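Example protein
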Amino acid sequence: PKHPDQSQFWTSRYSARGINAMMNVVHEVTDLAFDKIQTPCLIFWTPQDKVVNIKKSLSILNNLGSEKKIFIEFTTAEHVLAGHITAPENVLKASETIATFVNELIQ
């Protein structure tokens, strides 16, 4: 663990059934018609993420039919972009960005 609280509050071992469930989701969304999706989209990302394929994420974002699409980069995190245990420096930025995004949608 990178932080002492990670051992207490995080799971680092997962059942193989979880992998199957995640792959089922991946296969389901692979063939979606993203251009027909009108839902506003906010994506956070970091170049250090070794889990999410950024090229694929950008491709999906660019193909979304949504009018409101925002892509925010975090430079000081890995896969978990914000949180008091692994990326406390990003909590305020993430929280404020989400609040602004939602507030603009409901006004």
The chain has a mean pLDDT of 89.
